[in-house]
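Notebook p. 47: complex prediction with 2-amino-3-ketobutyric acid.
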Amino acid sequence: MLRKTVVLITGASGEIGHGLITRLARQTDRGIITLDLAPLEPALGKLVQREISGSILDSNLLQRVLSEYEVDLVFHLAALLSTRSEITPMTAHQVNVEGTLNMLEFAQHQGESHGRAVTFLYPSSIAAYGLPDLTTKGKAGKVKEDEWNHPITMYGCNKLYCEHLGDYYTNHYKQLSADPVSRVDFRCVRFPGLISAATVPSGGTSDYAPEMIHAAARKQPYACFVRPDARIPFMAMPDGVEALLQLAAAPREKLTRTAYNVGAFNPSADEVREVVVKAFPGAQITYKVDTKRQGIVDSWPADVNDCSARQDWGFAPQYNFDRAFSEYLIPTIRERYR
Ligand code: AKB
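Predicted complex, structure tokens below:
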């Protein structure tokens, strides 16, 4: 029996999955299958060929997917984010590392079964960086991919290691065997904090910015857990989704790296607050700094150098700080809570 050729999205019911399914369903004629513990929103469920309920840690389930479908593109989005990972580091390691290893093996076996490389898209994060103190962060400026790779969080360690695992599967897989054949084409975007108008994040440390906006739109008070001057890069979700799709479509020979920084704007927490208060007059946003979560944000760069992504595969975000708020976040979020 012929297997159906499909795109597989893990962790599809999360924030990136939400945007990716909507956008991908418009552009691909291949079916989309999803794998997640949590169900998709009903409207998203209608856009996919099959919604599989289960875990990336379930090898039997992955075997069944392999026998039924010919997958040649994987978006492996399933992960525990940085704050949640600090609460349950062992679970984070299982999901973020062992889960990713399972998915890389799955991709290799898929590729072996149909004879082509499986393109494997992996969202890494600015959490892969770790700057030792604020003076260094201030001096570092736009951090390049190979600088400051000393993450201080479980999640950051998981992400950085999985970037290397992906590189191993693509470039060094079973290098001592007589005839090693890698069937995984691993490509990775290091995302800044992503801000979506459609979903509220959970479990991340960059969540203060999206939480501030969604709380103001819902007329709820919000106490921001970082200092007003805390600064990291952010990106509007449509640009994040576009980055994944662009990198997936890039000719392999153009790629000079495994992991690519992507950036868009990098406001301080107070600059976000100002724009939110202007859009939602009366918004009650105060500060109640959580020194431990602040420590994590302080270890992340204030900005990233994304020249390689721009040069190699034409990354060009559509939303700067002003446009992200005036044309995407504020109107869409306002509509959402009307
Ligand atoms: C988190 O805060 O954990 C994520 C990230 C920056 O990767 N949003």
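Notes: Residues 81-82, 125-127, 155, 193, 204-206 surround 2-amino-3-ketobutyric acid (CB under 6 Å). The chain has a mean pLDDT of 96.
Next step: compare against the earlier run before touching the bench.
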